Amino acid sequence: MTASAPETTGTARPARRAKAAKPATMGQAIGRALRDAMAEDPAVHVLGEDVGTLGGVFRITDGLAAEFGDDRCTDTPLAEAGILGTAVGMAMYGLRPVVEMQFDAFAYPSFEQLASHVAKMRNRTRGAMPLPITIRVPYGGGIGGVEHHSDSSEAYYVATPGLHVVTPATVEDAYGLLRAAIASDDPVVFMEPKRLYWSKSDWSPEAPAEVEPIGRAVVRRAGTDATLLTYGPSLPVCLEAAEAARAEGRQLEVVDLRSLVPFDDETVCASVRRTGRAVVVHEATGFGGPGAEIAARVTERCFHHLEAPVLRVTGFDIPYPPPMLERHHLPGVDRVLDAVERLQWEARS
Amino acid sequence: MSKKRQSTPVVDRRRPTGPEDVPEAAEHTVTPPAWRPRVDPGPLLPDESPFRLLGTEAAQEADPALLKRLHRELVLGRRYNTQATALTKQGRLAVYPSSTGQEACEVAAALVLEERDWLFPSYRDTLAAVARGLDPMQALTLLRGDWHTGYDPRAVRIAPLSTPLATQLPHAVGLAHAARLKGDDVVALAMVGDGGTSEGDFHEALNFAAVWQAPVVFLVQNNGFAISVPLDKQTAAPSLAHKAVGYGMPGRLVDGNDALAVHTVLAEAVAGARAGGGPTLVEAITYRIDAHTNADDATRYRGAEEVEAWRAHDPVELMEGALRARGLADEAAFAAVREDAERFAASLRERMNADAELTPADLFDHVYAEPTPQLREQAAQLRAELDAEAASHGEDLR
Ligand SMILES: Cc1ncc(C[n+]2csc(CCOP(=O)(O)OP(=O)(O)O)c2C)c(N)n1
Ligand SMILES: [Mg+2]
Questions:
Q1: SS3 for A46?
Q2: Which residue in the set A85, A90, A262 is minimally distant from B372, CB to CB?
Q3: Is the dihedral of CA B79, B81, B83, B89 positive or negative?
Q4: How many percent of chain A have pLDDT more than 70?
Q5: What is the least distance, in Å, from the CA of A58 to any CA of chain B?
């Protein structure tokens, strides 16, 4: 699966294969990152709905309240603005809150706190009062969720200066990026691709890989003919598409963006300049989605290397479909391969 | 409808009075299993009318030093309000939401706090920050427009002025909660307007505060209006103070123009919070004498008579009357305070008349701990534009 894909990064940092690795899921890795961060730094507090006794609806925070107490892992009243708003106050007093939003679409009530305060406080105070808050948002579809449980809401966050927006696609990154997010003095929206919660990798919580800084994309699969630019839940789709394309004689490079803000123009453009073609793949709607920004950036920076317009394979511009129809909405391998076909191969001879 | 109604007879449910063939009801006197007794609402309820001290017997016993201090701050505060309003007319402030008429609340809120406590002001509460000791230049930065906040909140324990209504309230709760978890006996006092109490954040903040028993005091300045909208379009609650009861915290109603009464009620709430007694909601009944801001035309929604009626209940005059009645100050003493206020206003005017120092690079420097590569590019672009502008100005001079 994704974890066994070759990893050659722009920063050329090889993945450290953990000792005594056993299969672990992304959900477990996220929980472990929370635990390790809490153990290391007493300022780290987890708060959210059902995160205590229950361990969260996805069981990500399982065991934290038992280990650290209710004051460190707190079941809050049901109020997303209140959760994030009180987290702001806690951060003002020197704590490092990690907030769990139960689902993508249930984070919306907190948006005012996010846009008006979390994103702006450092700038407002000329750096005097940064807010080291991590906001974990399980996002995306593919789990058969009924309405309000499958939104890809990243574009809202990406469009809000002052926030970092990070999303892991592998078990290793889920751990490493979350540790980096919690350690960051800036607010980080940590978007968890919920359909990958159960994805597995040989990863040992006892010897987790080094924590990479936020803001670097990674080449998950090397290729020469075209670049698939993707993140989060769409990475496995792109890797599968690249494998299928190989059978047809096309070598696709797959870049996992990992961080939407900051955006790693360097790694992305280096890849596109090598291959001359690019397709952006994500679940979020296309119009005004992150792919629009990415396609524009690539075009602005790599125009003379491009053999074809940058294409996008995204969700349709519709409210997220009901579970029985979601497969028509989600970008799948065929749609990715179709887009690759449309990259004007005939022009190059 | 019969006018003569018997009071409902007391029915012994264990002995049904129905026909003989109805089977006897099984005894079932317990409450629903999920019901649990909650707190007695009685002690949480606000008084029937706003608590007052000035002009009553009780004011006779008030500490003379406190009265004099409140008076001085009120006079300075009134002068600060008129000066800041004047600065908008001179183009030195972008906008000013005056607290003229509300000085008693502003001043009392500042004076009840210890140095380690935190104040969470709204856009209308620069006076509270100034009365707490903040340099008015720093308090007015947002309204001058050279930056969004003019001070380090942690250094002065004053949160940035909050413009989005009621959003500062959950911050106060979170901060107070964090302090309590750390074992620090810090209290947060958060200010909000009557209109702000309709916002969801008001509800969420009060609920969190009560559940967490956070050491917070919420001060609602009910000044009659949210811009143009009067309170009866805002709420159907018996009073704003009554809202506290639904959260399980005490609600207190106070005459917001009686500085001594506001100080007393707030001080009690602060002491209670500090001692672990949890949050309190205080509603201060006051009046916004000026328009919402200098950009507003209040004649569109209220009559002059109403304003005049409130001018007769002026917080500064109330306090002067109390000092006179107690023989604690004579005309010379009042004149001396007014002179201090003039000096304070003159200094503010002078400093505001100097052009603000602007640093465009600041626009990019504080968005993140480290500017992103994209922001670095954009900063370089602006720098180049400014350099080019400077160069062309240089040519013009030559
Ligand atoms: C969330 C939000 N909505 C609207 C506004 C615009 N606005 C600014 S002040 C104001 C009235 C607020 O009235 P109130 O809470 O009574 O405070 P006051 O201005 O009377 O002090 C409004 C609607 C705002 N600042 N924030
Ligand atoms: Mg008002």
A1: strand
A2: A262
A3: negative
A4: 92
A5: 24
Predicted TM-score of the model (pTM)? 0.93
For residue A2, give every residue at least 6 positions away whose Cβ sits within 8 Å of its Cβ, in sequence order, or none.
A169, A170, A199, A201, A220, A235, A236, A239
Residue type, A255: V
Token couple for A134: 């991590």
- Backbone φ and ψ of B70, nearest 5°: -60, -45
Q: A29-80: per-residue pLDDT in tens?
A: 999 999 999 999 999 999 999 999 999 999 999 999 999 999 999 999 999 9
CB contact under 8 A, B367 and A162: yes
DSSP letter assigned to residue B48:
S
Q: Note the pLDDT tens digit of each residue in A305-320.
A: 999 999 999 999 999 9
CA dist., res. B159 & res. B388, Å (int): 39
Q: Which pair of structure tokens corresponds to residue B326?
A: 């107690």
For ligand 1, atom 19, which residue shows the shortest CA distance?
B226
Q: Return the SS3 of B330.
A: coil
Fold classification of B44-352 (topology level): Rossmann fold (3.40.50)
List B301, B302, B338, B349, catalytic entry: B301
* Tokens 């917070």 found at: B216
User: Domain extents for chain B?
Assistant: 1-36, 44-352, 360-393
| DSSP state string for A61-97 | TTTHHHHH-TTTEEE--S-HHHHHHHHHHHHHTT-EE
CB environment A226-255: b (16+ within 10 A), e (fewer): bbbbbbbbbbbbbbbbbebbeeeebebbbb
Chains A & B: contacts with CB separation below 8 Å: 140
Q: B204, B213, B359, B381: which to substitute to probe chain A, counting the most A Cβ within 10 Å?
A: B204
Q: Give the closest residue to A274 by CA, choosing from A251, A244, A243.
A: A251
Write out residues with Cβ below 6 Å of ligand 1. B 124, 163-165, 193-196, 223, 225-227, 288, 292
Q: Greatest CA span in chain B, whole angstroms?
A: 115
d(CA A317, CA A320): 9
Contact A194, A138 (CB under 8 A): yes
Domains with residue ranges and CATH for chain A: 24-201 (3.40.50.970), 218-348 (3.40.50.920)
